[in-house]
Amino acid sequence: MIPWEPILVNLREREHKRPEYLAINPEGKVPTIRDEETVVYDSTIINEYLEERYPEASLTYADPHRRAKVRQWEDYGDNNFLRPAENIFIHGKGWRQFEPEQLQGFRQRILESLAFVENALGRFDYLVDRFTYADISFAPRVMILEQLGISLPQNLANVRAWIDRLRSRPTLHNLEH
C-alpha cells in the first residue's frame, strides 16, 4: 500500500475553488493528488499515474490485453454507473435537484449496469479476475446503493458477493459517503 495523507475538500462550500486549492490545482478539480512536485487530477489519470510511478503496488496488469480490460471496466463504470450514481448522491445531499422521473431513470441505468457487471462476475471474484482499479472505480457508490435508494435484486447474487468482498478490503474501509 502506498502511504498517503488525505486532505478533505468540502465541495458544497466550494473549497476546490478557493485560492489555496487552486494553488495546488489551477483547474479546481477533485480528486487531485500531489506526489512530490507532480500534481495530477481526474481519477482515471491518477490511477494510471500511480500505476506507472509505483508499479510494485500494481492495481492492473503488465499484460496489455488484461490492462485494456481494466481500463475498459473503469471507463464503463465512469460512464454507465458512476455518473447516474453521482447524480442521485448529489440530489440526496441537496447540492443539485432532479425531477423524480430523472432520478428513476438514473436508478434504472444503475440497475442495468449492475446486470452487466453480474454477467462478468460469473467467472471471477472481481471484474478482471483479481482486485484492480476497475473495481475501485465502482466502489465509492456501489457500496452505498441503499443510500441511493436502490435495492439490489435477488438475481444479482454475484454483484452482492462482489460488494461484500469490496467492503471487506481494508483499503476501502474509509471511503467517505
Note the main attributes of this structure.
177 residues, mainly alpha, Glutaredoxin, Glutathione S-transferase Yfyf (Class Pi), Chain A, domain 2, 2 domains, two-stranded antiparallel sheet, 6 helices, 2 strands, 50% helix, globular
Tally of DSSP β-strands = 2
The CATH architecture of the largest domain can be given as Up-down Bundle
Number of domains: 2
Side by side, the strands of the main sheet go 1-2
Which regions have little confidence, pLDDT < 50, spanning 5+ residues? Answer: none
- Gyration radius, in Å: 17 Å
Alpha-beta classification:
mainly alpha
**CATH class annotation of the largest domain:** Mainly Alpha
Mean pLDDT, all residues: 89
Tally of alpha and pi helices? 6
Label the overall shape: globular
Order of helices and strands: HEEHHHHH
Task: Explain this structure.
The mean pLDDT is 89. The two termini are 22 Å apart. A two-stranded antiparallel sheet has the order 1-2. 50% of the residues lie in helices and 5% in strands. A hairpin with a 2-residue loop joins strand 1 and strand 2. Helix 3 (64-92) runs antiparallel to helix 4, helix 3 (64-92) packs parallel to helix 5 and helix 4 (100-121) packs across helix 6. With 177 residues, the protein is mainly α. The protein folds into two domains: 15-57, Glutaredoxin; 64-172, Glutathione S-transferase Yfyf (Class Pi), Chain A, domain 2. The protein has helices at residues 19-22, 43-53, 64-92, 100-121, 133-142, 157-168, and strands at residues 32-35, 38-41.
